[in-house]
Amino acid sequence: MRCPYCGEENTRVIDSRPAEDGSSIRRRRLCDKCARRFTTYEKVETIPLLVVKKDESRVPYERSKIESGVLRACHKRPISSAQIEKLIDEVENTIFNSGETEVKTSRIGELVMQKLKRLDQVAYVRFVSVYREFKDARTFMDELEKLSGEYAHV
After folding, report:
1. What's the whole-model pTM score?
2. What angle in degrees, to the nearest 10, is found between the helix axes of 81-97 and 105-119?
3. 38, 82, 119 from 123: Cα distances, Å
4. Nearest to 72 by CA among 117, 131, 118, 127
5. 73 neighbors 93 (Cβ within 8 angstroms)
6. What's phi and psi for 51, nearest 5 deg?
7. Pairing of strands 58-60, 11-18
8. Predicted confidence (pLDDT) per residue in 80-133, tens digit
9. CA 113 → CA 42, 61, 72, 125, distances in Å?
10. Is-contact 83 71, C-beta < 8 A?
């Protein structure tokens, strides 16, 4: 593994343990040249996953697309980057653990909505309004009323 600080190719693993999500290995490394430490994560290579879009076209799965949508929904909300990473990891794990080689965008969107609903109501409504392409204020209000009704019974 190449050192990110000096570019040296000789680095040593000084500690290995499962990452928090359990789907990867976290390794602490030490550069033999500059003596700086850094962390790497090792994941099992999975079967390439294709995302089936609304128009039935297929594109390779990209984590960054989920990340982008979630970050927009959570903008200026009291949500930590660790919470966002955990949410995206959970969505990803669900998708990859299904064993399917293709997943519809609608399935990904539904998973994100479920997670956001539990994390932050405002972020959830923001995501839903874009994802479901709200056309007017009435549709927006209907979603808010549904959300209010669900939390009134909790």
Report:
1. 0.65
2. 140
3. 33, 16, 8
4. 127
5. no
6. -105, 125
7. unpaired
8. 999 999 999 999 999 988 889 999 999 999 999 999 999 999 999 899 888 777
9. 28, 18, 13, 9
10. no
